[in-house]
Amino acid sequence: MTQDTLFLEVDFAQRRKHGEHICGDAFQSQRLDNNTRILAVLSDGLGSGVKANILATMTASMALKFVASDMEFVHSAEVIMDALPVCQIRRISYSTFTIIDCSAGGRARFIEMDNPPLLVIRDGQALPLESREMVSEKWQERVMRFSDMKAQPEDRIVLVSDGIVQAGLGSAELPLGWRDRGLRDFVLDRIQADPDISARKLADTILREALRHELNREAHDDMSCAVVYLRRPRKLIVLTGPPFDPNRDAEFARRLQEFDGKKVICGGTTTTIVARELGLEAKLDLNQMSDDIPPLSTMEGVDLITEGILTLTRVAQLLEKDAPTPGDDPAERLATLFLESDIINFIVGSRINEAHQDPTLPLDLEIRRNIVKRISRCLEERYLKETHTLCI
């Protein structure tokens, strides 16, 4: 994908049923064709807990492979059904699924079986989808809905498991649950209030609202929500470390100045170089203090300035462990910027900082280039971001 084409942002939020140790829903996604095509599957296994998780995970994994290979899908669904293990109590093998196949060029295909109907939001409205039903001769009780559409910039596609639309079921407020209409109205309100809301934030907001309807805010079924957002890519540049050749300092700073997107500097020496070359002043922000991460700095035209290796190492840990929640800690703020961006450009200076060669420092304090590789790999593999790294 070039940096000027549409970007397909995909993210999800999930909560396991209260009392269970693992979620019985599974969500998997994959990028193909040089990041211009996204496949995503949400599957809900029969029941809850480990058995449901096995059913859902198997279904999602096989569905991704079959769709990616362009295998005829009714036959694919039969293979999936045949492969699922049979519940010893109910004597059935069953897992619902919703599949999205969408390209940056706008072609979108949906395949649904027994999950709540997906939502397509365009221009502040829920877009009606024309679907056709197909039934497998082998599994005639399984009805699949197929839909096609021409997606447009700013379209959002929302898919959920039934734990979301059944939230609050039996309560005085929602005796029949939140239902499809409640979900739709909430999503439309949220997008109207925040037209630029990311897929990640929208999915998390929907999950939290569903939980709000539950008794004691405890999920009474597995809950999953995934969102695909078609939009112009959000770009981020990160400068860290001084250039190997000091004669390239001016070029280094100019790359930051001319970048069309959000801008981050990591490292005191890097900040000093940019400030000197651009004639700007960097000020230390002592209002944002952390116990283990050095404080932030501020500079005109730069969105975030942090310390270098320590902060980047902490960011790598946050991204590898879990999707970090927004916070004021410098590492949390930088990790959030990464997750809110689509295309991340790292400009890495190759000059060695002697302060980081002390053998008494923690083993996890890796040299700058390796930390950037670690973050890039995590962003691409776990969060489906596009990254580019230039070492100078």
**How many strands, what sense, and barrel or not for the largest sheet?**
6 strands, antiparallel
Structural domain tally: 2
**Strand line-up in the sheet with most strands:** 2-3-4-5-9-8
CATH architecture of the largest domain: 4-Layer Sandwich
Write a structural description.
With 392 residues, this protein is α+β, with helices and mostly antiparallel strands. The protein has 2 domains: 7-231, PPM-type phosphatase domain (Phosphatase 2c, domain 1); 235-391, no CATH class. The chain contains 10 helices and 18 strands. It has helices at 49-68, 73-83, 162-165, 179-193, 199-212, 249-257, 268-278, 309-321, 330-340, 368-381; strands at residues 7-15, 25-32, 37-45, 95-103, 107-113, 119-122, 125-126, 131-135, 143-150, 156-160, 223-231, 235-240, 262-266, 283-285, 296-298, 304-306, 343-348, 386-391. The strands form 4 sheets. Strands 2-3-4-5-9-8 form a 6-stranded antiparallel beta sheet, covered by helices on one side. A 5-stranded antiparallel beta sheet has the order 1-11-10-6-7. A 5-stranded parallel beta sheet has the order 16-13-12-17-18, with helices on both faces. Helix 6 links the parallel strand 12 (235-240) and strand 13 (262-266). Helix 1 (49-68) packs antiparallel against helix 2 (73-83), helix 6 packs across helix 7 (268-278) and helix 8 packs across helix 9. The chain is elongated. It starts with 6 loop residues before the first strand and ends with a strand. The model has no long low-confidence stretch (mean pLDDT 88).
